[in-house]
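Quick question: what would this complex look like in 3D?
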Amino acid sequence: MAHKLTRRRFLEVAGTIAGSFALAGCSPKNQDPNSIYVGVMGPYTGDVAQYGLAVRSGILLYLKEFNKNSGAGGRQIVSIVEDEKGDSTEAILVYNKLLDENVCAILGDVTSTPTIALAQKSVLDNIPCVTASATAEDVVAHGNNMFRATVTDPFQGVVLAEFAKKQGYQRVGTIFNSGGDYEIGVNNAFVQRARELGIEVVSQQGYPTGAVDFNAQLTSIIGLDPDAILAPNYYQDNGKIVTQARQLGCKKPFMGADGWAGIIGGEQDYASAADLEGCFYCSAFVASNPDEKVQHFVKAYTEEYGEAPTNFCSLGYDAAMILCSALKTVEKRGYTYNSNEYRQAIIDAIASGVVEGVTGTLSYQGTGDPVKSTLIITFKDGKESIYDTINPS
Amino acid sequence: MFLTQVLNGLQLGSIYALVALGYTMVYGIILLLNFAHGDIIMFGSYVAWIALVQLGLNPAIAVLLAIFGCVVLGVLIDKVAYAPLREAPRLSILITAIGVSYLLENGVQLLLGADAKVVPSIIDLGTVQVFGSTLSGTALLTVAVTIVATVVLTLLVQKTRLGKAMRAVSEDMGAARLMGVNVNSTISFTFAVGSALAGIAAILYSMAYQQVSPTMGVMLGTKAFVAAVLGGIGSIPGAVIGGLIVGFSEVFVAAFGLSVWQDAVVFLLLILVLVVKPTGLLGRPVTEKV
């Protein structure tokens, strides 16, 4: 005999379910006094998963080393890792979940768009956040709680324009994803600075996100005979752009920002060594940098994961370093874990600290943007090498 | 430079046309917008990538495997996901198609990873010089293959018994069944043909753009769907014309320096055609039988 669902019974069941949810919400989680809980978020599946996974590897490597060195005042960092699939809505859901897990700070997000969503939400709770790699200008504009380890998109555009001037380029064309904050940011800053420096920008060609056919845009740019072409996009697009341009008979150098990292020498090559010869991109990190800190990191990373670190891994490592050195300072003060003054103290410690990272010595001068030097990297026979260093003015 | 741009448009349009043909055939026979069609192309490209890179097979074998893989997948999807819903409301089967699409995208991502795979060149055709313009051999091949495929498909539908059965099922499924047409095998055959075209498109796509990713079918499928609707969904010449219109408008909008408006122009064109001619350029108005 089937149970008859009366209104009374329905209310009873609904009440029980609602009650159990409410209880679950109240139950205190993660209260171990010997631990500091840190949220780690990023896209680990989806279109931009490669960046998320690389940043996460760098973060987890640093946290492991840090914990081995007795952590922050004897307390161990416990990381709570969540996937936001590269999506802003998911990022907010993950953020709420991390707060429920009693985290006092977040290492995230990875790409610009969800990081802006995170910045808007986290400022309300004054949760300290350090993003390894989100470069859009807006990311740190929402409050003082947001810091980044990487330099900004516009900063990279300016560096590239100054580099173009140094190279003696007179005429430059640009091809960029007009649906991406990152690409637009670099492109616009480049164009503005290039014009100030007297470089003629002959053509700016946008393309929609997900485009695979760049022949029409490239045919237009090549027809204007520029000295170099700026392609400030991610490596998958840049690979196709460079390959298609070479097929159209163009031999001019391409320039780009740190989204180029990984175009060659990784699991697979997105453009051939011959096509990339003499192209440039700016980046904070290259594994062949002879610097001692960088070499220690490359060795430790390779031992841990069995592959060489990319730019994004190094930024993840530095982001974790920035947060952990602040936590170390704060732990000496004796505030209650995760109280308001505890969170504020972390923010203050990051803002006033100087960190010797693998992407350069960096400090914050009143904003969430780091001040550090940028490397210009070139390709020769399919190998990357440091071509020049542009110092912050 | 103008000739180069024309060929750019023809190449892109041809790929859209091949994909649009798959949409239009399935819609023609069971009135289903097969949203998984773009993902069948993705699957075909991955088969080609596995055959070429992982297994190191001969390019000719890789091409055949990719087309065969698409046919098997297309028929399998119909048997497993759509056939049980033949009598269900059309909305159910539409939602199922979207579900299949997500299943394929996420399945491939789970098995092979989210990052794009680089497909090595299947055949190097070099470039051809015509009237001082550099034309890519791959583009010329793409256009030629599309013309042949369209002619063969038209003959198949118009001149063979199977084609007659397809047209009968599309006209009236119940009456066709009463006349002794095996409706289920006819529908399977339609899926097989549509998927074979998807397989060919997958090969041409991989040759032209060198990279495959789990989500590559989404935008390709959407554009081809626009092409099919633009030309009049259900019509074979309509799909080809729609594909070429979409390809040309994308290339020429970009060539005039308005590439930011590329997608907007395509969708605006669709709206304009639908306002003036709701059945698409070559679509026939269907009167509802009561």
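Answer marked as accepted. The longest strand of chain B covers residues 127-130.
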